Amino acid sequence: MKKIITTSNAPAPIGPYNQAVLSGNTLYTSGQIAFNPETGDLVLDDIKTETAQVMQNLKAVLEAAEMTFEQVIKTSIFISNMDDFAQINEVYGSYFNDDTAPARETVQVARLPKDVNVEISMIAIK
């Protein structure tokens, strides 16, 4: 069974997709970028602030599914510049316990939606 997860505490989708889909006990989030859900503006002040907004958006989606970062088992991070990796990793890492952190890949890509610098998606289990 497939259940669509939505929340006004994260940016609304900008295309034909949903914020997340719960299938059984597994949650698949769509990639989040640094839209502020209250203003609709992109938060691109610096890479740490941008990453923090992405993580807050993901937190809101997890909460809408009654889940937390502790239940995340896999993340995918897409970045436009590998030179930003250390700063992104610092912010990202603050949301997880090192001993139970999820599996992850980080990939540099040529371009991201709205020309942002980072996009993150997650898979979590109940």
UniProtKB/TrEMBL annotation:
InterPro entries: RidA, RutC-like_sf, YjgF/YER057c/UK114. CDD domains: YjgF_YER057c_UK114_family. It comes from the Bacteria. GO terms for molecular function: deaminase activity. Gene3D superfamilies: RutC-like (3.30.1330.40). Coiled coil: none annotated. GO terms for cellular component: cytosol. Belongs to the RutC family. This is Reactive intermediate/imine deaminase. The lineage of its organism: Bacteria, Pseudomonadati, Bacteroidota, Flavobacteriia, Flavobacteriales.
